[in-house]
Amino acid sequence: MADAGKSAKGSKAPVGQPRRNFFATMSSEVIRSIKRAALEDDTTASEILEEAARDWLERRKHKAPRREPG
């Protein structure tokens, strides 16, 4: 869909940084919604997923570390 080699507006990836594929399994409904949102926002599904992952990683940094039971 929108991933067909076009550069997304406002890409947060550093310029010149190599890109790699990452495969994940998700529900069809979520995939369809991400692709639709990418088209509506004139971006790519990959950019949406990368932004979501970066946001999650940032939130995770600020959480208290888990303690192992024991």
Description:
The chain is extended. The protein has 2 helices and no strands. Helices cover 43% and strands 0% of the residues. The protein has a domain at 28-61. The chain has helices at residues 28-40, 45-61. The chain starts with 27 loop residues before the first helix and ends in a 9-residue tail after the last helix. 9% of the residues are buried. It has 70 residues and is mainly α.
Summarize the structure.
The protein has 70 residues and is mainly α. It has helices spanning 28-40, 45-61. The chain has 2 helices and no strands.
**What gyration radius follows from the Cα positions, in whole Å?**
15 Å
N→C terminal distance: 49 Å
Taken as a percent bin, the fraction of beta residues is under 5%
Order of helices and strands: HH
Sketch the major β-sheet.
Answer: none
Residue share in helices? 40-55%
Low-pLDDT residue intervals, each spanning 5 or more residues:
1-8
Q: Count every helix, treating DSSP H or I runs of 4 or more residues as helices.
A: 2
How would you classify the helix and strand content by structural class?
mainly alpha
Average pLDDT metric: 84
Shape estimate? extended
Beta strands, count: 0
Defining traits:
single chain, 70 residues, disordered N terminus, mainly alpha
Topology, element by element:
Elements: H1 28-40, H2 45-61
